[in-house]
Amino acid sequence: MMNNEPIIQIKNLSRSFGDILAVDRVSFVINPGEVFGLLGPNGAGKTTTVRMLAALLEPTSGEAYVAGFQIGKEDQKIRRKIGLLPEAPGLYDALTAEQNLAFYGAMYGVEEISRQIKHYLEFLGLWNRRHEPVATFSKGMRQKLAIARALLHEPEVLFLDEPTSGLDPQAARLVREFIAGLKGEGRTIILCTHNLEEADRLCDRVAFVNGHLVALDSPKVLRRKIFGRKVVFHLVEAKTEFTQVVEPFDFVSEVQVVENKILASVEDPEKNNPEVIRALVEEGAEIQFVGELRRRLEDVYLELMKSAEGSNNG
Amino acid sequence: MDRIRAIIVKEWREVFKNKFVFFTVAFLPLMITALPLGMIYFATGSESFAGVTAADLPPQFSAMCGELSGGDCMMYYIVTQFLLLFMMIPVIIPMTIASYSIVGEKTTRTLEPLLVTPVTTLEILVGKGLAGIIPAVSATWIGYLLYAAGAHIMVDNPAVVGKLFDPLWMTAIFVVGPLLSVFGVSIAVMISSRVNDPRVAEQISGIFVLPVVGLFIGQTTGFILVNQQFILWMAGILLVLDSVLFYFAIQIFQRETILSRWK
Ligand SMILES: Nc1ncnc2c1ncn2[C@@H]1O[C@H](COP(=O)(O)OP(=O)(O)OP(=O)(O)O)[C@@H](O)[C@H]1O
Ligand SMILES: [Mg+2]
Fold first, then answer.
1. With a 6 A CB cut-off, is A47 part of the ligand 1 pocket?
2. Can you tell me the distance from the alpha carbon of B21 to that of B93, in angstroms, rounded to the nearest whole number?
3. How many of the other CB atoms lie within 10 Å of CB of A74?
4. Do A55 and B111 count as a contact with CB atoms less than 8 A apart?
5. Domain boundaries, chain B
6. How far apart are the CA of A209 and the centre of ligand 2, in A?
7. Angle, nearest 10°, between helix axes A169-184 and A139-151?
8. What are the CA-CA distances from residue B156 to residues A217, A259, B68, B101, B168 (Å)?
9. Which residue in B14, B108, B119 is closest to A107 by CB distance?
10. Which residue in A2, A160, B47, B170 is deepest, having the highest Cβ count within 10 Å?
11. How far apart are CA B40 and CA B79, in angstroms?
């Protein structure tokens, strides 16, 4: 029972800045231990949503609960339960890595602060440079230190606002692996990102937002919902009569011929493909390969945003 | 308490790395102490005081001299002239420190990670405030002690130097001084919320030093007589002013305001 309670609950949450409606009646729940992606174009309200959930900004309307506490009413309790990596790492340049963490340890009242600092600095490869002022750190090192800062007090919920933006591929990968590791610890993670590959790999579910909530599901389901499952039949020669063999099946739709390939949406490829293949072979088709056309989450994103734009203009 | 202490230490580590801040905190009190000492040095060197009588001084002031002779009263007059100058130390130092510490956090975007912690607005402001007030009040006291020591060496009549420890000066240094530093911090917090350059914040805040300068000029030109009553009035007015300003500083320092309205 307890484990099934959502750790974050948002109901009709809105926030405006003057005339700008940054977040528009968004509702969703996040389950404990989930890695939840927030995706959307610049200015879609991701950061604003995170700030509201982190008890930094008040919602204009609607309500939200984090770890069982209502935002705007029990902010102080929420603050102890959450960690935030903001868009900008925001470290104190004149202080050393260790002094930065010690300062935040004091803000959170972390008890075994030196042990925690050692743990995270070692884990993130910064232990040897703990006595150096942050001013001398590279962007990637700062980002890692800011992540350590967000984790010092072992929060139940971790908000990461674009954790890998501006990092080189190697540093980005290290951070991504680190996040994947955190997932294993059962922490709930809310991840804002523009890197769809990253969301695809790390997130259990993703929400596409653009002011309002555009779509929400697991990356896999989203891919299927938007595009169905496309199967590609590579033939030695794709004659047009072959399409007449494929089309009559109930479970097949959108048949296309491209060069020597037949593309078709198939409801349940694992079950349906053998039947299609048999029919094609009987018709004399020479099949070289059969495969599924992989869609990337990026395609889903672009498709969703395209249709959202269409509906806005219309 | 731990949080406030951690904030104070952090502010000092940060802000004193800045040469300008360090210079202000270290040299302003030295200058303000050296100036009156120099004046006394030249005054005692000249013989012109010997013939001074009570009639040469503002009548209200002569009343304050009590038993002192005309020349000594003149000396006391000079010594007292600089009391208000001293009052600039506790305003300017915390303004400088608070401006740099708050605008600094704004430009390096360190406020958001700080505000997401369970630290309260009051703790942040008290921490930042004390980080400015402690050096300011210490510098005022140290400057004052140096001044008294210097005067003791240069002025022959111990009664004149003794006047530096009368209730007037004590109230000024130990009550009005700290109240002025709270004033300086509160002003700096409010100005800092609106600008993005610590020097600009400092300059705008500097306008609020003018009343003290004005009082000083008023005193030297004889418009204002700095006596016990004047100092008590000053303390009373500052107490009210500080409460109002500190209240506004807290309002301005709310998380919501900082993240949605600070530019
Ligand atoms: N403090 C503020 N004052 C005024 N408008 C704001 C403020 N913060 C955000 N906005 C506006 O709200 C909208 C959403 O901004 P937000 O930063 O949440 O977007 P985002 O999804 O995080 O974008 P990005 O991907 O660029 O980080 C934008 O139009 C932005 O201009
Ligand atoms: Mg953002």
1. yes
2. 8
3. 15
4. no
5. 2-50+81-262
6. 12
7. 10
8. 89, 111, 13, 45, 21
9. B119
10. A160
11. 7
What is the pLDDT tens value at each position of chain A, 314 positions in all?
Answer: 445 689 999 999 999 999 999 999 999 999 999 999 999 999 999 999 999 999 999 999 999 999 999 999 999 999 999 999 999 999 999 999 999 999 999 999 999 999 999 999 998 889 999 999 999 999 889 999 999 999 999 999 999 999 998 888 888 888 899 898 888 888 999 999 988 889 988 999 999 999 999 989 998 887 777 777 889 999 998 888 888 888 899 888 888 888 889 988 888 888 899 999 999 999 888 999 998 887 777 777 777 777 766 555 43
Contact A31, A7 (CB under 8 A): yes
Q: Which two tokens stand for residue A252?
A: 């097949």
Q: Could you tell me which residues come within 8 angstroms of residue B23 by beta carbon, excluding any fewer than 6 positions away?
A: none
Please choose, from the candidates A155, A158, A88, the residue with its C-alpha nearest in 3D space to the C-alpha of residue B105.
A88
Atom 12 of ligand 1: nearest residue by CA position: A22
Q: What is the pTM of this model?
A: 0.85
- Mutate-to-test residue for ligand 1 from A13, A17, A19, A193, highest number of ligand atoms within 8 A of CB: A17
CB B128 within 8 Å of CB B11: yes
Q: Is the CB of A43 under 6 A from ligand 1?
A: yes
CA–CA separation, A138 vs B28, rounded Å? 37
Nearest to A296 by CA among A221, A163, A197, A176: A197
- Based on DSSP, count helices (H) and strands (E) in chain A, helices before strands: 11, 14
Domains of chain A: 8-217 (3.40.50.300), 227-293 (3.30.70.100)
Contacts of A93 in chain B (CB under 8 A): 108
Calculate the CA A215 to chain-centre distance: 13
Do B189 and B108 touch, CB atoms closer than 8 A? no
Strand, helix or coil for residue A83: strand
CB contact under 8 A, B110 and A90: yes
Helix, strand, or coil (residue B144): helix
Other C-beta atoms lying within 10 Å of the C-beta of residue B171: 16
* Residue A96, beta-bridge partner list: A133
How far is the centre of ligand 2, averaged over its atoms, from the C-alpha of A39 (Å)?
A: 10
Q: Closest Cα to residue B93, out of B216, B154, B11?
A: B11
The residues near A114 (Cβ < 8 Å, ≥ 6 apart) are none
Strand-strand pairing, A212-217 and A205-210: antiparallel
Q: HSE (CB half, 13 Å, CA atoms) of B204? A: 18
